[in-house]
Design brief:
- Helices cover 17% and strands 44% of the residues.
- It is an alpha+beta fold.
- It has 2 domains: 117 residues, Proliferating Cell Nuclear Antigen (Box); 128 residues, DNA Polymerase III, Chain A, domain 2.
- The strands form 3 sheets. Strands 6-2-3-4-18-17-16-10-14 form a 9-stranded antiparallel β-sheet. Strands 5-1-7-8-9 form a 5-stranded antiparallel β-sheet. A 4-stranded antiparallel β-sheet has the order 13-12-11-15.
- The relative contact order is 0.17.
- Its main location: nucleus.
């Protein structure tokens, strides 16, 4: 038996909306401590890592570890049937191992709705993510991150992030023009109200697909802040915390390779 109850369906709606365009089918690994998801996109360029800790839930029961393979489009359809303030209960029972149930009820408990979704057989392979010390860590407003990605995407399909001691630059250049956004923010990472804060151990410049960054920015509704961790030649980590420390949604994106540099 597995059952997890969220106070508001809107939390799960935001999570699924932030992942479903990147990953079609995903295994939700449920244990006594958390629900975790780890999956690559079809192009094997980006990795999604989700953790929902037990304290995020109003009630949580997991008698044994179970992996729930779900089509995220179908999950999204189920969640659209719920009002944002509805209580959301995710349920899997041993006597029906082919399905998972999404149950919703309003705050007044005058209406209950149950939607059953077929489970899929998905290989649940945990890709070991090594601990990495990053050259630069940037924390910024999630809304500002989303706007910057949208602004850069008007002119190019790539965004270059340059982090130096004096500031952080997001830039892009295409056939019709270019856009450069520069932040001379607070270097004090403790200032949570600042538009952007950063800690630069060494200068770093990397280029990424703006298409993927726009997908990541869809998670902005989950958290007021986003953290970007950068080092030369390794994937950037774009992290949104869920309910402070009750979970996280992390995206890993490989940098674009400079083909001209390789030819040299």
């Amino acid at each position: 038996m597995f059952e997890a109850q969220l106070e508001k369906a809107s939390t799960l709606k935001k999570i699924i909306d932030a992942v479903k365009d990147l990953v079609t089918d995903a295994p939700f690994d449920c244990s006594e401590n958390a629900i975790c998801l780890q999956a690559m996109d079809a192009s094997h360029v980006a990795l999604v890592s989700l953790k929902l800790s037990i304290d995020l839930f109003e009630a949580y029961r997991c008698d044994r570890t179970v992996s729930l393979g779900l089509n995220l489009t179908n999950v999204s359809k189920a969640l659209k049937c719920a009002n944002n303030d509805d209580v959301c209960i995710l349920r899997f029972t041993d006597h029906d191992q082919d399905n998972v149930t999404f149950a919703f009820h309003d705050v007044a408990k005058t209406k209950t709705q149950e939607i059953t979704i077929k489970l899929m057989d998905i290989d649940s392979e945990q890709l070991g993510i090594p601990d990495q010390k990053y050259a630069a860590t940037i924390e910024m407003s999630s809304a500002e991150f989303a706007k910057t990605c949208r602004d850069i995407s008007q002119f190019t399909d790539s965004v270059t992030i340059a982090a130096v001691k004096g500031g952080v630059t997001f830039s892009g250049k295409g056939d019709t023009g270019s856009n450069v956004v520069t932040y001379n923010g607070e270097t004090d990472a403790e200032n949570s109200d600042a538009l952007i804060t950063f800690e630069i151990n060494e200068n770093v410049t990397s280029t990424f697909s703006i298409k993927y960054m726009l997908m990541f920015a869809k998670a902005s509704g989950l958290s007021d802040r986003v953290r970007l961790s950068l080092s030369e030649g390794v994937p950037v980590v774009v992290e949104f915390k869920i309910n402070e420390d009750s979970g996280f949604l992390r995206y890993y994106l490989a940098p674009k390779i400079d083909e001209d540099a390789d030819m040299d």
